[in-house]
Write a structure and sequence with these properties.
Structural class: alpha/beta
Number of helices: 6
Strand content: 15-25%
Radius of gyration: 17 Å
Largest sheet: 7 strands, mixed
Order of helices and strands: EHEEEHEEHEEEHHH
Shape: globular
Strand order of the largest sheet: 2-3-4-1-5-7-6
Oligomer: single chain
Distance between the termini: 30 Å
Amino acid sequence: MKLIVGLGNPGPRYQITRHNIGFIFIDALVEVFHSQRNYKTEFKAETQKLKIHDEHVIVCKPQTFMNLSGEAVQPLLKFYNLELTDLLVVHDEVDQPFGTLKFQVKRGHGGHNGIRSIHQMLGTEDYARLRMGVGRPPVFVDDAGEKTRGTMEVADWVLQNFGKVEQQKLPDFLELGIQGVETWVKHGINQAATEFNGKEV
């Protein structure tokens, strides 16, 4: 059995924000492998059981808000008696351009509060992650030819809705991520990283 966790914030206000791509991805995964959303609430999370290529999978959307995501992940791992190697956490990544994937394991939180919480609750960073690129705020060039990011901070950027062009590309991005997760389920993190890291829609 595997546990795939998508990070995000609950509530309609955050539904299609960049920070919520983990939630958006889990919903897409459910629609592909189960056809209908039928989440139940357990351990501060919405969960649903799927079957991906004969492997039983639990998908999870923590309902704790991003900064406390670990409070949902740690109890689920323990209750279902899963190993760290059974866990994949899907989250937004500002240091990658929109539409890019990166499978990684045993990496620092990089300032991502959801990942920081999971690190703290698990007491380790030795688990797999799928980082889905959402990019940074756009860079502008002023009249003097100097580059500037304007006034938007990264924390505000990720809480903005995806732009129109991004929303048009989002289905293809999610499909690419689903293909990567299928590879992770069947062949593990190294094969998934080899095939999908650097791919872009």
